[in-house]
Specification:
With about 270 residues, this protein is mostly beta strands. The chain has a single domain, classed as Lipoprotein localisation LolA/LolB/LppX (outer membrane lipoprotein receptor (LolB), chain A, Clam), CATH 2.50.20.10. It contains 4 helices and 14 strands. The chain has a 14-stranded mixed beta sheet with strand order 7-8-9-10-11-12-13-1-2-3-4-5-6-14. It is globular.
Length: about 270
């Protein structure tokens, strides 16, 4: 089974991955243009929830193999993302907990665990690690705390296309130096009817290996908010390798527990360092 590879990919998404709706957090005062207007409408229509839980079914497709899995994702906005992955017979094989400054991972097949800071991901994969980015990817939103005045707009019959060749991260926390963060090459496709993101490509400048393409499909209305029930993630230009995740049920704004107990019988897995 290649679930270990699958989990590495899920964690790697963090490196590309807050769903706040306030314009104050996204834009500097400037003259309003059509680009600004489209971007503002996209932000106003982003999906927002303080608590989120969803049951999922997924497929990890590789050129020579395919892994099918199910699971559950729980989220408390800006605080924690919790993932439980099941294999056949509804047996849990992995559990993941991601917080803004750390992540934990249990492998029940090998009886091992990982507990590392998010700084490890930045050092290991040479990309900026940001909890808010994986939260945004999961909900189908744009990344917060990045420049918003660098997009170019293309308008066609299929929708709006926002594109930038260099999008810098803004200062997010006191004492944070945005110059240490990665610079993104990003394209965002927006539906003309509802201003929801339908697809985006993200690449980190200076990295030939790190490229993510996400497509959002099957939007459903939840209390006036549209949520994409399916997303397809591709890495690099390999059309034969992708991760497809479909939500079968979601629940909003009900308080959740995030159980994560590591057995004393489990061994800590030492990760490769640069």
């Amino acid at each position: 089974m290649r679930f270990q590879v699958l989990i590495i990919i899920i964690i790697t998404i963090v490196a590309f991955t807050s769903c706040k709706s306030s314009k104050r957090e996204f834009a500097k005062p400037r003259r309003q243009t059509k680009v600004d207007s489209i971007y503002s409408l996209m932000v106003e229509n982003q999906f927002n929830a303080d608590w989120f839980t969803g049951k999922i079914k997924g497929v990890y497709q590789m050129p020579d193999d395919k892994q099918v899995f199910s699971g559950q994702i729980r989220l408390r906005k800006d605080s924690v993302i919790w993932v439980s992955i099941y294999a056949m017979m509804n047996i849990e094989v992995f559990r993941i907990e991601i917080q803004p400054d750390s992540f934990k991972f249990i492998n029940r097949l090998k009886k091992t665990y990982i507990h590392e800071s998010t700084k490890y991901l930045k050092d290991r994969f040479n990309v900026d690690v940001d909890f808010s980015m994986i939260q945004s990817l999961m909900l189908g939103n744009d990344f917060p705390f990045y420049e918003t005045d660098v997009f170019k707009l293309m308008d066609n019959n299929q929708g709006y296309h926002l594109k930038t060749l260099a999008r810098h991260k803004l200062k997010q926390r006191q004492g944070e130096d945005p110059s240490d963060s990665s610079i993104l090459v990003q394209s965002i496709w927006i539906d003309k009817d509802n201003y929801r993101i339908t697809k985006q490509n993200v690449k980190v400048i200076g990295s030939n290996k790190t490229k993510l393409r996400v497509t959002y499909r099957d939007f459903e209305d939840f209390n006036g908010q549209l949520f994409p029930m399916k997303r397809i993630l591709r890495f690099k230009e390999d059309q034969n390798t992708f991760l497809e995740i479909s939500f079968t049920k979601i629940t909003l704004n009900e308080k959740l527990r995030f159980p994560f107990r590591i057995s004393k019988k489990y061994t800590k897995q030492e990760l490769k360092r640069n």
